[in-house]
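Example record for the data management plan.
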Amino acid sequence: MKLIKNIKTLLGVNWGSNLIKGNAMSNIPSLENAFLVINDGRIEDFGAMSSLPQEDSLDTEIIDASGKYVLPAWCDSHTHIVYAGSREGEFVDKIKGLTYQEIAAKGGGILNSAKILNDTSEDDLLESALTRLNEIKNLGTGAVEIKSGYSMTLEGEIKMLKVIQKLKNICPLLIKSTYLVHTFPKEFLHDKEGYVNEVLTKHIPKIAEEGLADFIDVFCEDGFYSEEQADRILECGTKYGLIPKVHANQLSNSGGLQTAIKNKAISADHLEQIGDLEIALLKASSTIPTLLPSAAFYLRLPYPPARKLIDEGLGFALATDYNPGSSPSGNMPLLLSLACIQMKITPQEAITAATINGAAAMNVAQELGSIEKGKIANIIITKPMPSIDYLPYSFGSNLIEKVLIKGS
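Corresponding structural encoding:
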């Protein structure tokens, strides 16, 4: 058993398990001068210090959180953490002005990542992914969704998904897995329908049969998968019990969001390129917008209209898009700073989006994302701070002192 006492402010108490929307995102329920009790990996009790039970149990580990904030761990609902190699050479090429097409012609881009991944062993992929998971855990992430999509061969996609399955078993973080239909392999660039048929008749049935994925995702975008192709892929995935997600409206306003909503996707991710029509459609749907500001930062794209979404009464999740090509960082505290500075949302709105709303976008809000009796004790304890606003304000500092995952 653990007792965290003298907490300056306990954030996210009795928030429930539903997406928080609109102006409610700025009102994080909290307790001042609080305590929190953890037992057997779950939250057993919390309240004001004035109501703290006797501390006489010899089995109780006591953590003094004087001057510190305690809040739910981050729920990062969109990552590509299982990958091989890195792409810092392309980073320099972009700085020098090379286009995506020029980088691809040099052998770079996602097809290069796919080649390296297909040549990398399952054990090596596991080791590198586990290193990244430990890195993000220390920055406060307690739950993470990990996508495949960097192989595009059935064998390689299954290899990635098996790595994610192993990570679920050996890493204390709560992990959800996604089969991502990302782009077209080189041998199918002139036969895209042929690859779609491979996905429908071979990939999805095999992945579902082996129980390797919780979600199915597709990159619905000009130059990638059309709305009609994405429809067929998501419908097939749904038939096999996979919950739809969609990479939508990152590079253009091309109908990806409409495809997500039509297929009752749990989330539509990116949304840099949406307008009033798409916002109206979101308001009439249950699909959760998931915004990835670090990808927009890295690619110098317009940022998603987070402020407008809130003003229109919508809620959204924030996620890192941790991947080697367009967002090589899983740093959620830095992501909160980017969201506040570049998308003009408040620290409270950003924290809401990165905790309970991220949990909702991963379909785990019944277990994580808020401080509730019985929920899993994935908890952040900050260093002493003058206010919670100081966390995204001081974007160059690590203000997280301790992270508890399942109470440990």
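Summary line stored alongside the record: The first helix runs from residue 88 to 95.
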